[in-house]
Amino acid sequence: MPSFYFQTFGCQMNIADSDDLRRELLCRGYDETSDPLCADLLIVNTCSVRENAETRAKARIQEFGRVKKNGAKLWVTGCMAQRLGQRIKEKIKTVDRVIGAQHNSDFLAHLDKYLPKYDHTGVPGKLHNSPGDYITVMRGCENFCTYCIVPYVRGPEVSVPASEVVSKVARRVDEGVCEFTLLGQNVNSYRDGDIDFADLLKMVASVPGVRRVRFTTSHPKDCSEKLIKTIAATSSLCRHIHLPVQAGSDRILSLMNRRYSLDHYLGLIEMIRRYIPDADITSDIMVGFPGETDDEFEDTLRLVEKVHYTTAFMFAYSSREGTAAASMKETVSEDVKLSRLKSLIDLQTSITKKIYDSSVGEEFEVLINGRQEKRERLWMGMNNGFKKVLLSCDSAEAGMIFNVRAVRSSGMTLICERITK
Ligand code: 5AD
Ligand code: SF4
């Protein structure tokens, strides 16, 4: 049986895309291997969001080109494939095929054209043992934040029909999945006729067998009160809102073309806390945008203090060719970017620790994701917000939900024990 090896860089949507493509290969009778040296087909699904992501993907593609076995094919998919197209093949001669992120359907055509089908027994079941899965509900972005390559590589917004989302969720439930994360670059733009994103969340939450629903990412300029109220009113919708702020000053937000003010953002945070007092709020934050002064960076730190995010993804600005910000004068040196990033990470880490420490004694539900590898009686999981949990108990299985009490905090994990309710 021929085999394939898949390597994925980047965001959750790339992971979900890779999973879809892996399923197609399994359906065609291919086996998945964990050893790239043995594979007949190697696929690298790439990311373009920062230069560093592209550098790592290119290094990996080059390495695969060197080590792949004789006759094996090397395909490159995803955002970097979309951005650079056939230029990748010119630079790395060992690449056989380049299929951009907007052309995933071409992947299937390529499969049928260039790879033989093999006899196989039925449709593949679950791809992994995790009780959670990602479901893409909309693709693309039309916001054109000035730093961001996504609108160029992922193209305009397209929503997946609600009936398709619901039937995909129902199929995954049959495979044993119980937690779903709905994905979109900007979920608030979801539309299917009269159905908006809050309606879609409710539809998914009411599919039999669905225990938990999460989603990402919301744009602060169009995160609605209806969405927040829906989460507050529906117990299987997780108490977590990812609301990327990016920067803490109105001037930088405007240069970024984010189209909201700090006041608007803080108003949303206040609304979330009012409707969902126990919500975990998380963010994406960037330092070193062209023109960012020391004072404006301090504004970002002050904002982070004020909001008290449970966690945040933090980045140094990376210029992306073709974006509006790429033609702005870079005023922040790499050294300063890195030292700002370090200060920001230090601050956020201390806030995360405070939030975790103050959760000791609380009771909540935890969904088990799997066993902690190094320890016999420890299980990893997540509460119904966005807090990581280690559950100490004799026996458990991925997918089980327990009532627990937090007995200790490591600063980034809550160590919990089961309680009976
Ligand atoms: N440089 C640094 N970070 C970026 N992001 C997007 N584009 C860039 C860039 N050019 C970050 C944003 C976004 C997250 C997914 O990646 O914070 O929300
Ligand atoms: Fe990029 Fe802005 Fe769209 Fe997010 S909303 S994908 S940051 S352009």
Describe it:
Helix content is 36%, strand content 23%. It has a 5-stranded parallel sheet, sandwiched between helices. The chain has a 5-stranded mixed β-barrel with strand order 16-17-18-20-19. It has 421 residues and is an alpha/beta fold. It is globular, with a radius of gyration of 22 Å. It has 3 domains: 3-114, Rossmann fold (3-Layer(aba) Sandwich), CATH 3.40.50; 132-358, Alpha-Beta Horseshoe (pyruvate-formate lyase- activating enzyme), CATH 3.80.30; 363-418, OB fold (Dihydrolipoamide Acetyltransferase, E2P). It is built from 13 helices and 20 strands. The chain binds 5'-deoxyadenosine (5AD) and iron/sulfur cluster. Iron/sulfur cluster (SF4) is lined by residues 141, 143-145, 148, 150-151, 185-186, 219.
Secondary-structure map with pairings?
Blueprint (H helix, E strand, L loop, with lengths): L2 E6 L3 H16 L3 E2 L8 E6 L4 H17 L5 E6 H6 L2 H5 L5 E4 L3 H11 L17 E5 L1 E2 L10 H5 L3 E2 L2 H13 L4 E5 L7 E2 L2 E2 H9 L6 E5 L8 H9 L6 E3 L7 H6 L6 H14 L4 E8 L6 H14 L4 E5 L17 H25 L4 E9 L6 E6 L4 E5 L8 E9 L4 E5 L3
Parallel strand pairs: 1-2, 1-3, 3-4, 4-5, 6-9, 9-12, 13-14, 14-15, 18-20
Antiparallel strand pairs: 7-8, 10-11, 16-17, 16-19, 17-18, 19-20
The protein binds 5'-deoxyadenosine and iron/sulfur cluster.
* CATH class value of the largest domain: Alpha Beta
Strand arrangement in the largest pleated sheet? 2-1-3-4-5
Tally the helices: 13
Label the CATH architecture of the largest domain: Alpha-Beta Horseshoe
Global Rg: 22 Å
**How many beta-strand segments?**
20
Reported for the largest beta sheet, the result is: 5 strands, parallel
Question: Unreliable runs, pLDDT <50, ≥5 residues?
Answer: none
Overall mean pLDDT stands at 95
The number of domains: 3
Our estimate of the beta-strand percent is 15-25%
Amino- and carboxy-terminal Cα gap: 51 Å
Helix content: 25-40%
**Looking at the structure, what is the overall shape?**
globular
